[in-house]
Specification:
Layout (H helix, E strand, L loop, with lengths): L2 H12 L3 H7 L4 H10 L4 H11 L3 E5 L2 E5 L7
Antiparallel strand pairs: 1-2
Helix pairs in contact: 2-3
Length: 75
């Protein structure tokens, strides 16, 4: 399952559409749609998307779990 599919599934669970998510991210809908199409995101993109739809980004390596949130992004 691609990252885009996971994001779209989370959006569906939360009832958030592309237009609304793009607006929350201060991004134009075609820009967000292009990221979806290319399945190409920066870590900052993923953290902002997750925060906007009420999820968190976790990196899991064996038994370690690292949660990245908005406070971890450089201003």
């Amino acid at each position: 399952m691609t990252v885009t599919n996971k994001i779209k599934g989370a959006m569906n669970l939360k009832g958030v559409g592309l237009q609304a998510l793009a607006q929350q991210l201060d991004m134009r809908p075609p820009t967000l749609s292009n990221k979806f199409y290319k399945n190409s995101y920066s870590v900052a993109d993923l953290v902002k998307i997750a925060a906007a739809i009420g999820f968190e980004v976790c990196l899991i390596d064996g038994t370690q779990k690292i949660v990245i949130d908005l406070s971890d992004l450089q201003k």
